[in-house]
Structure formats: structure tokens, C-alpha cells
Design a protein that fits this description.
Helix 1 links the parallel strand 1 and strand 2. This protein is of the alpha/beta class. The longest helix has 10 residues. The protein contains four helices and four strands; from the N terminus they run βαβαβααβ. The protein starts with a strand and ends in an 8-residue tail after the last strand. The protein has a single domain, classed as ATPase, V1 complex, subunit F (Rossmann fold), CATH 3.40.50.10580. The protein has a four-stranded parallel sheet, sandwiched between helices.
Length: about 80
């Protein structure tokens, strides 16, 4: 079965998706994202979920990855909302 990966710049998102049995990695910078994408096993993965804030900071990296790779499919999810105080 193919895997789903999640990459976020938010630790809570990684923890939450990890509880749903999604392999998650924390990327604190676009360079971290680039390294994580390079280490993903393309034959084993089908979808990579990336949070919106990280994707915006890493637009060029994602465009280059998409241009070179048909799979895994990269999808962007919204960043977590802060709870009202």
C-alpha cells in the first residue's frame, strides 16, 4: 500500500497527523522541506501533504519538485487556526 506523508512547519500539525497514522516531518525552513522531499521514497508514496504557510515560503522548491516528479502528488492544506482567547 502506498504511504501518505505530511510536512509542516507546525509541530502540532505533525503530531495530529501522526495520530492518524500519517508519516509526518517537521520542516522549519524551505531548505528542510527540500531535504525531506529528496528523502521520500517515490515508489512507496502516493501523496505528500504540506501546510499552506510552508508551501508559500517554498513555492520555487515545490514547483521544481512537481516539474521533475509525477508522483507523489503534492497537496496543500490550511494551516491550523489559533483558538480565540
Amino acid at each position: 500500500m502506498k504511504k501518505i506523508y505530511a510536512i509542516s512547519d507546525n509541530a502540532q500539525t505533525c503530531i495530529g497527523l501522526g495520530l492518524a497514522e500519517v508519516s509526518s516531518s517537521l520542516a522549519k525552513s524551505p531548505e528542510d522541506l527540500q531535504q525531506i522531499l529528496a528523502n521520500i521514497d517515490h515508489a512507496e508514496s502516493s501523496i505528500v501533504i504540506i501546510t499552506e504557510g510552508l508551501a508559500q515560503k517554498s513555492a520555487e522548491i515545490l514547483a521544481g519538485f512537481r516539474a521533475k516528479n509525477n508522483l507523489p502528488l503534492i497537496t496543500i492544506i490550511p494551516d491550523p487556526q489559533e483558538s480565540p482567547k
